[in-house]
Design goal:
35 helices, 912 residues, six-stranded parallel sheet, alpha/beta
């Protein structure tokens, strides 16, 4: 009987389940996985799907009312890896946990119910009209006690069709020693890297635990949609430390416990960093283990069983929201951790430093040296937002909000996440996000706001946003000029960028002359392409070309875009008539083509020469005659085509990537280098929280930066300000003996970051350094920044931190430089927790006769200056006054004593 021809609808399938349930029989469930198609039983064991199926069979076997069997099943659970024809008589569940690009609409229609692993793809399914329940990945692994680290860097996975994997490629590029277990590598890797084509599933936990680092990577479509590899769950649960290629879904599950890389150089830097900071690595490893262990197979089995029983018996008790959430994270995870007892005597990593206290839950702010960013956009695979998200995820903790969600949830989500920066992506149009709401968030959270407007049509909505946002970025200069005429000077030029991971050269002999990539949505473009098709071998790629009579290749996304580029001798960049007059405008098609190593012939737009050089990076044309002439010339001149394509590739990958664009946006937000809010109309900024109450003039800021530039130059010559100079300084010695280096510590006036580094190195506490010099902070972050050692630009009299942010603080050789000492003390009281301590050093009586000291104090005067706090200790050593004070539970500020105030000169903040 041909089951595919049976017209059995869902109601009949549900009715059959109810009859089974009413008879008191268990529901017989068949589980199908892609590994079922493998005829070789040995090879089948190398499929991860096979072991997912086995874990589910084992977990479901513990539950009443369900019988897992292949004999006369009532229902089927399909572990989606690739489409199969399912029996239409059976109630059918589908779990999409991988390869989302294969989940086409016609395939999904045969399922009665869907489970989806990725929240991002779950929203895409909803957009396409398919409802699903979120069902996460899980692990059956347990921490391995007493295992010694024997391997440096390991990777477990089969070679793909092209004989490579991103993780292995990055490992080779890094030059680090590594070992690979997996099928298909024999003969492709040097013998020193290849271990075996198979490792037993039951030995994986010991291998992961015995590895210094475990590598992970993803299929491109899984990374794009946030499907996180099961390998990460298994390795972390086993006690391994995982580093992975970029995937926007990783942070949502594991926070910063899984560092991410996009190249061999970044992988090398990560390994070097965590080898130098073993305490940080250990803390992240423990937290990652805790998260992974909370996702167990029994919780997944519970979710599947509940759905089937609820369908079979509508009177089944409805679950509470808390019970539903338990399907995503095992509610018994904490007890399971206690049972495992991995933190006691059998702690394998640090047997001499046994940790008996519970693992501390780290917040995004704890784990991330960057900023907390709320990214608002429309997230789908057919636009560039996932590339932006990937790059933003490298800079800090990122929360996303899809504008297709209920906008009423935006306020609650934002206040819960407490972002330091809000970014509106290119799909935020037509008033989706109200400018007034942004103004309220700025005032309430003190956050900065940026907007990227990548489309070409002018929008008054983005002018409205510019009156509130700190910075608006346009991909053409014409709209910047229009806004400038309205007095808005906070609009900047930011060309559309590219992602070299997705768009890259592919070596192949060209198959045809011309290729245009883009959708059929413009009549003038279609008319030109038909003229070209009459004279040259032309192809088009994109949507809706099939009815035009042109030879169409279908959509072009991601790596397929680069494959198509490699098939053509010349790529066409045809700008529609309505965009041609926009200054320096081009779409991301231009940079994606050039990043793919293709030769591009582009429509000229005014000012394009300010970005690229004609006949060096690409070639442009200004009319049809010139276009046809250029095509004939460069089809004949192969050497010139290859040279220009190579130069174009180097130019865009060096200057116009998402990483570069995001770095520019975040650096502007972090440093406050936002083209003057004061230029906005007064009525639009009255509710905006000022970045600082102390307005440092530009020349004074330059002087402050110049001071630290000179200090750095002196250190590089081997003079003062080297790390060793700070290590031997009496102030550093006293700091390391003080009681403040525990918990989350603030350094007020961190300079180039050396003392913060030495304090963290000696005591292992988490430190945030703050300084008014942008140059000093940038150097400190670059040189010493980590998840436990971060640096921020800030004014000591108006610090950029929420109240009660820090356990303790220290301020060394800073007090004597601050004019408004009363405001400084109020800020110290505000940012420290009740009972928190501050350690202070001040030069006694200006012993070194420094001209930029605005306070000249004695030991007793300093104690009186800190009268609003409870002074617990003070002493003088080497003509330096040291003082320790505690913030009372209900601190009330006391003004600085008149005898000190009267000695403060009438002068502005000067360089130290």
């Amino acid at each position: 009987m041909d089951l595919t021809k049976l017209d059995v609808n869902r109601d009949l399938r549900v009715q059959r389940l109810r009859q089974v349930r009413e008879s008191g029989q268990p529901i017989r469930l068949c589980i199908l996985s892609p590994s079922d198609a493998e005829q070789n039983s040995y090879t089948q064991l190398q499929w991860s799907d096979y072991w997912i199926k086995q874990e589910l069979i084992k977990a479901l076997g513990n539950l009443p009312g369900i019988l897992v069997t292949n004999y006369q099943p009532h229902a089927v659970l399909h572990l989606f890896g690739f489409p199969v024809q399912l029996d239409p008589r059976l109630y059918t569940l589908g779990w999409i946990y991988g390869h989302p690009d294969l989940a086409k609409d016609e395939t999904l229609r045969q399922y009665d119910h869907l489970f989806c692993y990725s929240g991002l793809f779950q929203k895409e399914l909803e957009r396409r009209g398919f409802w699903s329940d979120l069902m996460m990945a899980a692990t059956g692994k347990l921490p391995q006690a007493g295992v010694e680290v024997r391997y440096p860097v390991t990777f477990v996975g089969n070679a793909r069709n092209n004989g490579s994997r991103p993780a292995v490629t990055a490992a080779l590029e890094s030059g680090e020693p590594f070992l690979v277990w997996g099928n298909g590598w024999k003969g492709k890797l040097e013998r020193k890297h290849f271990v075996a084509d198979y490792i037993d599933y039951h030995q994986l936990d010991e291998l992961y635990a015995a590895s210094e680092f475990v590598l992970n990577d993803h299929h491109p479509d899984m990374a794009r949609w946030g499907f996180v590899s099961f390998r990460i769950f298994d390795a972390l649960a086993s006690g391994g430390f995982v580093v992975s290629d970029h995937n926007p879904g990783i942070y949502g599950i594991f926070g910063q416990t899984v560092p991410q890389f996009s190249s061999g150089g970044e992988l090398k830097d990560l390994l070097k960093h965590f080898r130098a900071h073993p305490e940080q690595k250990e803390e992240l490893r423990r937290e990652g283990m805790k998260i992974a262990l909370s996702h167990c197979w029994q919780a997944r089995a519970d979710q599947i069983r509940w759905h089937l029983l609820n369908v079979a018996d509508p009177s089944t008790k409805k679950l509470t929201n808390e019970e539903k959430r338990s399907f995503t994270a095992n509610p018994n995870a904490r007890q399971r951790l206690a049972d495992i007892n991995y933190g006691l005597k059998k702690q394998r990593r640090s047997p001499d430093k046994i940790q008996t206290d519970p693992v501390r839950t780290l917040s995004p702010a704890d784990l991330c040296p960057g900023r907390r960013l709320l990214y608002i956009d429309k997230f789908s695979p057919d636009n560039s937002n996932h590339f932006w998200l990937k790059s933003f995820s490298k800079t800090g903790a990122v929360e996303i909000f899809d504008i297709r969600e209920n906008l009423r949830d935006l306020n609650e989500r934002t206040l819960d996440f407490q972002p330091q920066h809000i970014h509106l992506g290119g799909s935020v149009k037509n008033g989706f996000v109200k400018p007034e709401w942004l103004r309220q968030m700025q005032a309430r959270l003190g956050c900065t706001v940026s907007v990227f407007y990548g489309d070409a049509r002018f929008s008054d909505y983005h002018t409205q946003l510019a009156r509130v946002a700190d910075q608006v970025y346009f991909s053409n200069k014409t709209h910047i000029r229009i806004n400038a005429e309205q007095g808005l000077t906070n609009c900047s030029y930011l060309p559309c960028p590219t992602d070299p991971d997705s768009f890259h050269p592919i070596k192949q002999e060209p198959e045809f002359d011309l290729l245009f990539i883009g959708n059929h949505n413009n009549e003038s473009r279609l008319n030109l392409l038909k003229k070209l098709d009459a004279r040259f071998d032309l192809r088009v790629a994109g949507h809706d070309w099939e009815s035009t009579g042109l030879k169409a290749l279908g959509p072009a996304y991601g790596e397929n875009f680069s494959r198509l580029c490699a098939q053509a001798r010349i790529l066409l960049g045809i700008v529609g008539d309505e965009w041609k007059d926009l200054e320096a405008y081009f779409s991301n098609r231009l940079v994606n083509v050039m990043a793919s190593g293709a030769f591009l012939l582009q429509t000229y737009t005014p000012g394009l020469e300010s970005v690229f050089t004609n006949h060096e990076h690409l070639v442009w044309y200004q009319d049809e005659d010139e276009l046809f002439s250029q095509i004939n010339q460069y089809l004949a001149d192969i050497a010139a085509r290859l040279r220009i394509a190579e130069n174009g590739y180097r130019e865009v990958t060096a200057k116009y990537t998402y990483d570069h664009s995001v770095a520019l946006i975040m650096e502007s937000a972090r440093s406050g280098n936002l083209d003057c809010l004061a230029a906005k109309p007064v009525e639009t900024v009255t509710n905006v929280q000022p970045a600082s109450s102390l307005q440092i003039q530009e020349t004074e800021q330059e002087a402050l930066d110049d001071h630290w530039k000179k200090a750095l130059a002196e250190a590089e010559r081997g003079g003062r300000f080297t790390l060793e100079w700070f290590r031997g300084h009496p102030i550093t010695r006293e700091l390391l003996k003080s009681p403040v280096l525990q918990g989350h510590v603030l350094e007020i006036g961190c300079g180039l970051g050396q003392r913060a580094f030495l304090a963290h190195q000696a005591k292992g506490c988490r430190i945030t350094g703050m300084d008014a010099s942008w140059f000093a902070v940038a150097h400190a972050q670059k040189t010493y920044g980590s998840t436990q050692l971060a640096f921020e630009v800030g004014d000591a009299t108006n610090m950029p931190f929420p109240s009660r942010s820090f356990d303790n603080a220290y301020m060394l050789a800073v007090f004597e430089h601050i004019v408004e000492s009363d405001r400084l003390l109020r800020e110290i009281e505000r940012v420290l927790k009740p009972g928190g301590r501050i350690f202070v050093s001040v030069t006694e009586n200006n012993y070194h006769a420094s001209p930029d000291h605005v306070h000249i104090v004695t030991h007793e005067e300093l104690r009186r200056a800190f009268a609003s706090l409870r002074v617990v200790d003070s002493y003088v050593a080497d003509h330096i006054i040291f003082l320790t004070a505690t913030v009372p539970p209900d601190a009330v500020h006391t003004e600085v004593r008149p005898e000190i105030r009267q000695r403060i000169p009438e002068m502005a903040f000067e360089e130290r």
